[in-house]
Batch of 2 targets.
Target 1
Amino acid sequence: MIHALGLGRRGMGQCWPNPAVGCVIVRKNRIVGRGWTAPGGRPHAEPQALAMAKSAAEGATVYVTLEPCAHTGKTPPCASALIKARVARVVIAAGDPDPRVAGRGIAMLRDAGIDVTTGVCEDQANWDQAGFFLRVLKNRPWVTLKLASSFDGRIATATGESQWITGPAARHHVHADRLRHDAVMVGAGTARADDPSLTVRGFGAVRQPVRVVVSSSLDLPRKITLAKTAKQIPVWLVHGPASIDAASYWDGIGAKRLPVEATSPAKVLQALARAGLTRVYCEGGGQLAASLLQNGLVDELVGYTAGLALGSNGRPTLGALDIPELAKAARFNLVETRPIGADVLHRWRRSDYPA
């Protein structure tokens, strides 16, 4: 199952709106097939593993990180494919809460006489599927908030200079994290001030994440990099009331608009979930980051801290937060900390999640 989990993680950021699933087929203590959810979400992991195993799947044990699907969508149910292949046993890490599945896949397998074991490495699988589960159960994606700052929590000097506070190793790691998410999100202020490309670089030809900009009124410059590349790499704009001219411009260059009545963080995330996103990597700016934290919508914090200080007149990582008492501040549990080049990486998860 550990191998299947590792395979499933290869699909993270590549297969939304489907979950990133891994599958390993074993017969007589030998791996005869393996697969993971393909880019775009199809084929699923199980049929890919079965195609590799061929006739060796008969009588074999299948290890899969999520309950096999039981509904017919653009492809037949994976549970049916396993039954047709005449496998002997299926070991499942986590159940699927999607109402179209939710135990039906397990029931189909058992009704066909297949031995089913559940809950193997379930905690690890639940973490891997947290974005998919949040989208199904709470209508929002998993949110990772990335903050790269000086030792005293500043993202730029008083004059606005910010490139580069952290070193090349940290920046490379950021690109790896972008690759594991469905989308990279920034606020309109960051899009205006930094003119970012928000792409994954340094990993060859990969499926690029969606670039998301949150703008209250769609008042974005029309010559920014995101506009110039919108036809090549997806740009989504989540926005409030906008002029006809602005809407027409962004429509015309290939951007996707997701209008919401008010650009509250909850409504923004709901719009992204409806559009299929399961994992979002937020890179600021300070106001957007603060509003996500204020509303309890950050699931993971990733910090890159550099060994320099910029002082109180430097620009802070976060905008204002309404926190009159320490008890009202969101708490996160430390998951990982290690040197990364000349900087320090630290990763935290919400304290109401398992450590």
Target 2
Amino acid sequence: MAVLKPAMRGWLHAGMFPLALTGGVVLVALAHSASIAVACSVYAASSLLLFGTSAVYHRGDWGPRGEAVLRRLDHANIFLIIAGTYTPLAVLLLSARQQTVLLLLVWTGAAAGIAFRVWWITAPRWLYTLCYIALGWAAVFNLPDFARTGGTAVVVLVITGGLLYTAGAVVYGLKRPDPFPRWFGFHEVFHALTIAAFTAHYTAILLAAT
């Protein structure tokens, strides 16, 4: 018997897709060097993959094979958005050596995470949720450098976004709270927190870029 999805499932991320596209264009247009433009393009692409794939996956009925493919892509894109978000922050706020270390760490972690989710799609929810959280806080030791070069507001926004993403991961892992299962369930709470976290990080990148 098919499980009925809440009526709002997928609509939040569908609505974010054009906003993420517009925001990405703004960041690339504001870039004052080729390296920053590339970094912002990577970030924009990762956000479009996240919101676009999520909207398609959660709004449609794709059959067993389609569901399996889209679920893998949807989960893999969480690792991509983490590494994609750190890319412009590293390029904008860190020294060349620090950039290399952080980007190598997060993109290697993202690649490992993607392989993990693609090949072990039935992994326990708690396990891959912890992987998302661990990679998401990979740059915690770079926060003082972010503060020195980007200012207090940038660091506060980065931390706020991290806390919101973490809260979303906890909601996803626990499947609670589940306020209105027929309309707006735990997964929609998770998506709402993802959007709030993305907005905080986007604002941090925008401030750093300007």
